[in-house]
Design brief:
By secondary structure, the protein is α/β, with parallel strands linked by helices. Helices cover 44% and strands 14% of the residues. The chain folds into two domains: 166 residues, P-loop containing nucleotide triphosphate hydrolases (Rossmann fold, 3-Layer(aba) Sandwich), CATH 3.40.50; 89 residues. Helix 8 crosses helix 9.
């Protein structure tokens, strides 16, 4: 059982339910699967755990075309071929192990200290990748076939897996993880988050910016709604403008929409409403 307890980090606002499932997952040594829309803090949770528990963070960004072996190790055949051709390397070309490079999961296994392993956007991978990956994480070992060697984890990492729920995950996969859905923060929680990032923010700016932000998120037809990171960057932009008055937000004057909306059609919809003062 793991004796370390996660209680939050300097820039991560943690609710009690999420803290419980993180600590239970560490105690049971099970992966924690996080779902929720982009911008709800799934990825940042792994960063916060690593910061709080003073562990290195290793991030595996899953791609749709990724094969599991890439996450475990790579055999650098090209470098070996070049070394054998030109003969100016200090490596021994007859020793294949000199050309084995650990992937992200492999790095977590061979680390001399316990790590936090973030497997980001697992829903991009196919079912075979997902299930085979959890087999490796269950057993805490994998084989390097080129050198007939088994790599066993020195320390079981804290495993955080995120999904944007774009594809359903298999039942066997779900059955081997603990699960938590991170809902988008409500205005009250968002105010706590903003206060962490801007301790000296005025009440007028915080209140009006958050209110305008939530009105903009509810604009009909928006494909990519602004998330917490956009709100934080938007407040930075507002604070950097010496001519901006927070009171204007309550009047429907909403500048810098390009910080909040990253798709042309979303920007245009929001801009049209703002220009007609429809957000008041």
């Amino acid at each position: 059982m793991n004796s370390q307890t996660f209680t939050g980090a300097s820039r991560y606002v943690l609710d009690a339910e999420l803290a419980q499932i993180v600590n239970v997952s560490m105690a049971l040594e099970m992966p924690l699967l996080l779902k929720g829309e982009p911008g709800t803090g799934k990825t940042m949770l792994a960063h916060a755990i690593a910061e709080s528990l003073k562990m290195p963070l290793i991030v595996l960004n899953v791609k749709s075309s990724m094969k599991l072996v890439e996450a475990l190790y790579q055999y650098d055949t090209l470098t070996r071929l070049n070394d054998s051709r030109f003969g100016d390397s200090k490596r021994d070309v007859s020793n294949i192990e000199d050309y084995i490079r650990m992937g992200k999961i492999g790095q977590a296994f061979v680390s001399d200290v316990r790590t936090v392993l973030l497997i980001d956007e697992i829903d991009k991978a196919d079912t075979d990748f997902q299930d085979d990956m959890l087999d490796v994480l269950d057993q805490m070992e994998f084989d390097i076939i080129e050198i007939d060697k088994t790599v066993r984890a020195k320390h079981r990492p804290v495993i955080i897996i995120t999904s944007n729920a774009k594809k359903d995950l298999s039942d066997p996969f779900l059955g081997r993880c603990n699960f938590h859905h991170i809902a988008f923060p409500d205005p009250k929680m968002m105010r706590k988050i903003i206060n962490v990032h801007f301790p000296d923010i005025s009440d007028t700016l915080a209140r009006n910016a958050i209110a305008a932000f939530y009105r903009l998120r509810e604009v009909d037809g928006i494909e990519k709604r602004p998330a917490t990171r956009e709100l934080i960057n938007w407040i930075r932009a507002l604070r950097a403008d010496p001519d901006f008055s927070p009171k204007n937000l309550a009047k429907g004057d909403v500048p810098y929409l390009g910080v909040l909306f990253k798709k042309s059609q979303d920007y245009q919809r929001a801009s049209n409403l703002v220009s007609r003062r429809r957000l008041i």
